[in-house]
Amino acid sequence: MNLNALPKIELHTHLEGAAPPEFIRRLAQEKHVDLSGVFDDEGNYAFDNFLHFLKVYEAATAVLQTPEDYHRLTLAMLEKSADNGVIYTETFVSPDFCGGGDLGAWKEYVHAMQDASDMAEKTHGIVLKGIVTPIRHFEVGKAKEVARCAVETFGDWVVGFGIGGDEGAGKFSDFAYAYDMAREAGMHLTAHAGEFAGAQSVRSAIRDLGVSRIGHGVRAIEDMSVVAELVERDVVLEVCPGSNIALGLFSSWEEHPIARLRDAGVKVTVSTDDPPFFHTTMNDEYNNLARAFAWGEDVFKEINTTAAKAAFCNDTTRKTLL
Ligand code: ES4
Ligand code: ZN
């Protein structure tokens, strides 16, 4: 079984988090940005835990200063994804990082990412769509401004809205207004939940934000009534097993709950999150899952069909994925 050749649909990546370390180092040299503390002796991203990861992530993004930088990053990311058989991917991207906090420049960044996506589609046959992401540990008021950015650029490339960042900061209900803005504009909704907080966080994302998908969501397994709610409401999980293991949520692939969630009837999909940070690729994810759970190609095909149906693209693009 050669899973590397299987066409894959990936719903959960972060654009800056997909930046190869060598790409960030090259930009740092060009722009004379000091990145001490970001890399270890081997040149990999260095962090000890999730909050430290978020800090290192933010430090690395300091080299991404112009729309042209995001254009280059988008091309670099999509080349690696296409090498792994990925034919469609969605990426979280934040107006808080693009433009160093100047939200006025957001549209130019979207144009750059969209242009790079069009180029990669022509050269590698891969499609990218964007999910605008407020950062949860920044001020709550910022999420509304980010929602305004999302609504202004919602269309062919920007398709969704989904919060990321430190799940310990604030409550989902604090962000309900921003989600209402995105929902009323017709945007698709997801949220990071059930990663560094438990099953009640997953329940809150469903009930307080009305999301159709959840980023991670794996800690729903701690409360079977939340698992039942996911099944009943047809909520799709964007599961990133390699990320969860790298960040110490589960100690081995065998202990990861993705198979138990699937067996309980939850719709699961598979993604990498931030591949170079977590030393993973889509091929690694598939091969590790196949080994840990004796999953055959049929299971991965089912997972990709689930992902195609849950993708935030329009139905014309969706038909090409099914
Ligand atoms: C994240 Cl804001 C952000 N960036 C990258 N990965 C993440 N995981 C959770 N929040
Ligand atoms: Zn994520």
From TrEMBL:
Q: Which domain of life is it from?
A: Bacteria
Q: Which family does it belong to?
A: Belongs to the metallo-dependent hydrolases superfamily. Adenosine and AMP deaminases family.
In its UniProt record, a GO molecular function of this protein is: deaminase activity
Report the enzyme's class at the first EC level. Answer: hydrolase
What does the record give as cofactor? Zn(2+)
The catalytic activity of this protein is classed by the Enzyme Commission as 3.5.4.4
Protein name, entry field: Adenosine deaminase
